[in-house]
Structure formats: structure tokens, C-alpha cells
Design the sequence.
């Protein structure tokens, strides 16, 4: 496979858009009510040590991605079995995000259009970009992140006249238990999902870049999500927020500047699409890269179209309805995703550290 290099700046753009991809329009876990922003801060603090563990793997295995690491540490058989699990996780996560977009389109935008149509359009666009390579995805992400930040900043400023600060009180109304429950939920969705990016680690240029990319991307994305969460809470209040599937879209639809600047929720919808496009594209790339590594293909590009169509088809039947989608996202997903995001990477890191130490001891003994 040809070597692709994505500069740190473009990699950070991919990480930011990947993390904010679905949470921008679905919101985050909100059992804690008007204190959900505190849970987000805790989730970010929990995610930072995990980012350093991911970055350490890049130092221990320079120029290698997640699949190379698994095979190198756990052997050809067990390593490939774990690689197959991550291929499934990347494929499944991409299908989940596509279905989120399909439900969004069906609910608020293209109500008379079959859900499969918009999902297929986004899926084929992702296939086209992934076939172009990770470098194309990086350049696209850098441009789209700039556009996203400008639009989000403009919407935040236009939302200020609609803020009702009494929605922030009473403070910690549901207690600390719900805050910690939300923190765990927000940790797994969306922050720890960046474990998918390990499948593209071979494209990072040097040893020190992984920590910079992951930590910076997490902090920037976390800041964006906190600002958007604050805006939704101040505009709608917790009672309304808890009853909505897509709170950001409803909040933006309430912006009205002198009866002149109204109905700008379409701009918010564009932001949703650009962010999820990057997220689905990275999931598709990592799934295809894994298939290439496990089955020793000459290039992952030979399976991009097939995997993309499988992802779209999986998204079509993965949920029965939008209620099942929301229940899975906020209650089941954190249990399902935890082994992929934390347990296996931590075991991989510990084992790799032990192997590296033994190798250094052998080298020092040989020199003596």
C-alpha cells in the first residue's frame, strides 16, 4: 500500500469534525438536566488521559496503525481476530452515524423522501473521498472545519438575544449522580470514539504529532460542544430539550432578528452534514484499511465501494425507529463501545510497554 501522510493541522481538523460529528445535532446525554455542561467538562477530563495512551502507542509503533499494532503484539491469529472486531466497530459506527442523518432528514428536512436516498448520497460521497485517499480527506476536513467554525460562531452571536439565563438554575437540580452518569455517557459518545483514528495512525508524520493531534482536537471539539450545549439550554430550557430528538436544529430555528433574519436552521443543517461526512468517511477508511491488512490486499481502495454499500445497507435496518436509535445512543452504546475504546487499547498499550522494556533489556545485556 502506498504511504499517505496527513499533516498535523489536517489531522486535528479530522479529529475535531469526527468528535462533533453527531453530537452537534443529536446533543449529548442529559440526565443531569441544566448541569449537563458540567458532565461535559468531566468527560473531557476523562478523555485526555486516554488520548495520551493512544498517542503513546504511536510512539511505540511509529509508522504503524491499529491493525499493525494488534498483529505485532497479539500475534497473527489473535491479532487478526481483534482486527476483525475493530473492522466491525468502524463499519457499525459509520452505519450508526448514517442512520442518525437518515432520521434527521426524515424528521425535519426531507419528510416525504425515503430514508435510504439521503443516506445513499452521503455514503457514495464518502466512498468517492476515501477512494481518493486519506490525504484528500485531510484537506477536505481542514476547509470544512474553518467553514464550520465560522457558521457556529455566527449562530452563537445571533442566538444571544434569545438567551434566558434562568434556565441555568436551579444548579445541580438532579444531583451529582446524574452528572457522573452523563459524564460517562459523553466520554464514550463522542470523545472516546476517536479510537477509530488509531486505524489511520500510519498517516501521522512523526512520533510527537499524535499527542498534539489527539489532545488539541479533543479540547477544541469539547469546547465547541460545550458552547452549543449552553446555547441550546439557554434558548430552550431543560424541559423542552429533554423532549427533542434534534435540539440544535430547533434552537437555531428560533433565531429571529427584527423579523428580517429568520429561518437560518438550514445553515445549521449544512454544518451537521459536513461534520458527519468527515466522521463517516474516516469510519469507512478505517474499516477498509482493516480489511486490507487482515486479508493482505494490495490496496484498501479495492474494497471501498463494497464496504460503503454495506455500511449504507446496515444503516437502513439497524434501528426500527428513531426512539430505538436514541435509546441505543444514550443507554446501550456506552456499554457496547467501552471495550473497543478503553479495554482493548489499554491492554494493547500495557503489553506493548512490557515488550518494549524487555527489548531494551535484551539490547543493553547484549551490549554489555
Sequence:
Amino acid at each position: 500500500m502506498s504511504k499517505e501522510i496527513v499533516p498535523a493541522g489536517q489531522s486535528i481538523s479530522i479529529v475535531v469534525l469526527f468528535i462533533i460529528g453527531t453530537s452537534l445535532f443529536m446533543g449529548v446525554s442529559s440526565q443531569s438536566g441544566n448541569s449537563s455542561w458540567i458532565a461535559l467538562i468531566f468527560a473531557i477530563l476523562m478523555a485526555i488521559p486516554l488520548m495520551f495512551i493512544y498517542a503513546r502507542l504511536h510512539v511505540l509503533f511509529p509508522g504503524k496503525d491499529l491493525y499493525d499494532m494488534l498483529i505485532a503484539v497479539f500475534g497473527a491469529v489473535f491479532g487478526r481476530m481483534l482486527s476483525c472486531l475493530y473492522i466491525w466497530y468502524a463499519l457499525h459506527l459509520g452505519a450508526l452515524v448514517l442512520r442518525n442523518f437518515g432520521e434527521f432528514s426524515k424528521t425535519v428536512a426531507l419528510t416525504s423522501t425515503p430514508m435510504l436516498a439521503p443516506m445513499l448520497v452521503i455514503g457514495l460521497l464518502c466512498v468517492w473521498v476515501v477512494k481518493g485517499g486519506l490525504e484528500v480527506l485531510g484537506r477536505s476536513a481542514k476547509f470544512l472545519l474553518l467553514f464550520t467554525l465560522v457558521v457556529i460562531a455566527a449562530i452563537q452571536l445571533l442566538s444571544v438575544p434569545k438567551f434566558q439565563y434562568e434556565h441555568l438554575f436551579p444548579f445541580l437540580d438532579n444531583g451529582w449522580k446524574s452528572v457522573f452518569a452523563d459524564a460517562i455517557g459523553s466520554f464514550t459518545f463522542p470523545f472516546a470514539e476517536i479510537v477509530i483514528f488509531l486505524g489511520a495512525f500510519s498517516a501521522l508524520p512523526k512520533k510527537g504529532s499524535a499527542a498534539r493531534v489527539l489532545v488539541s482536537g479533543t479540547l477544541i471539539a469539547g469546547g465547541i460542544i460545550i458552547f452549543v450545549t449552553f446555547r441550546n439550554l439557554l434558548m430552550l430550557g431543560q424541559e423542552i430539550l429533554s423532549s427533542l430528538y434534534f435540539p440544535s436544529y430547533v434552537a437555531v430555528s428560533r433565531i429571529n432578528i427584527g423579523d428580517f433574519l429568520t429561518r437560518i436552521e438550514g445553515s445549521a443543517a449544512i454544518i451537521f452534514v459536513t461534520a458527519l461526512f468527515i466522521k463517516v468517511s474516516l469510519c469507512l477508511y478505517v474499516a477498509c484499511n482493516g480489511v486490507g491488512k487482515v486479508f493482505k490486499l494490495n490496496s484498501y481502495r479495492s474494497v471501498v465501494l463494497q464496504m460503503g454499500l454495506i455500511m449504507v445497507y446496515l444503516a437502513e435496518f439497524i434501528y426500527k425507529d428513531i426512539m430505538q436509535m436514541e435509546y441505543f445512543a444514550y443507554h446501550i452504546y456506552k456499554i457496547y463501545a467501552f471495550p473497543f475504546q478503553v479495554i482493548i487499547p489499554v491492554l494493547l498499550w500495557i503489553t506493548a510497554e512490557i515488550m518494549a522494556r524487555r527489548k531494551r533489556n535484551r539490547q543493553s545485556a547484549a551490549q554489555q
